[in-house]
Amino acid sequence: MTLCFATNNPHKREEIAALLGDEFVLKTLAEIGCTDELPETQPTIAGNARQKAAYVWDHFGVSCFADDTGLEVDALNGEPGVYSARYAGEPADSVRNVAKLLQNLEGQTDRRARFRTVITLVLDGQYHDFEGVVEGEILTGQRGTGGFGYDPVFQPQGAEQTFAEMPMDQKGAISHRGRAFRKLVEFLKNRQERIDKRQETRD
Ligand code: IMP
Questions:
Q1: What's the mean per-residue pLDDT of the chain?
Q2: By alpha-carbon position, which residue is closest to atom 22 of ligand 1?
Q3: What pLDDT does 21 receive?
Q4: Three-state DSSP class for residue 169
Q5: Are 160 and 144 in contact (CB under 8 A)?
Q6: Which of 34, 95, 171, 201 is most buried by its number of CB atoms within 10 A?
Q7: How far is CA 89 from CA 78, 95, 119, 150, in A?
Q8: Is 67 helix (H, G, I), strand (E, B) or coil?
Q9: Which residues pair with 129 in a beta bridge?
């Protein structure tokens, strides 16, 4: 099955491609002729995922999925949440975002946080949402050089490494995006099986 992954983030494409295997062919936005900046103006993570998927479907008529993620920190009342990419203002900058986060948590003992991803799939005009969450904590300093965004300060529950210290497949096995993405893949596989069975009974 061919689907467009509505993202311009090469890290995410790499992560998703590693999880996906050969079963699905992913097209980039460029490959479907979309060079537009996708709108992300909704006040929620789910709203943004849907807005991006709907944009591709409405303008290009291509089945696709889009994801949106936020880091929710308990001691900051769920911030930066939907504003995670631009927490330290425009232009989006991970180094400044992480610095602001660490500063805002200075002296704070409650370091609980979670990444939340919502993926919206639009398949032949029908919308489906898939959510993935990973609980963890924000460290007081940075560790590791892999990954992106808040990875060097996020340590998942039960792990001794930050996301930035983990190999990509280890991060994908427990990450918010990995969890949401596996739900998406399961949905697509089940759907494909139902289609194949109907086809068999017809033949
Ligand atoms: P997006 O909606 O996936 O683009 O995510 C919004 C922001 O959340 C990104 O700009 C990153 O700062 C942060 N983020 C998303 N996913 C991850 C991740 O896997 N690790 C670290 N930060 C992430």
A1: 92
A2: 149
A3: 65
A4: helix
A5: no
A6: 171
A7: 17, 12, 25, 15
A8: strand
A9: 120
Give residue for tokens 């002729």: 33
Quick: pLDDT tens for 73-125.
999 999 999 999 999 999 999 999 999 999 999 999 999 999 999 999 999 89
The Cα–Cα gap between 52 and 142 comes to: 31
The verdict on the CB of residue 149 being under 6 Å from ligand 1 is yes
Question: Residue 12: in which H helix or E strand, if any?
Answer: helix 10-20
What domains, with CATH codes, occur in the chain? 2-202 (3.90.950.10)
Q: DSSP assignment of 80-145, as one string?
A: EETTGGGTT-SSP-HHHHHHHHHHHTTT-S--EEEEEEEEEEEETTEEEEEEEEEEEEE-SS---S
Structure tokens, 43: 């006040």
Q: Which of 22, 36, 67, 68 is catalytic?
A: 68
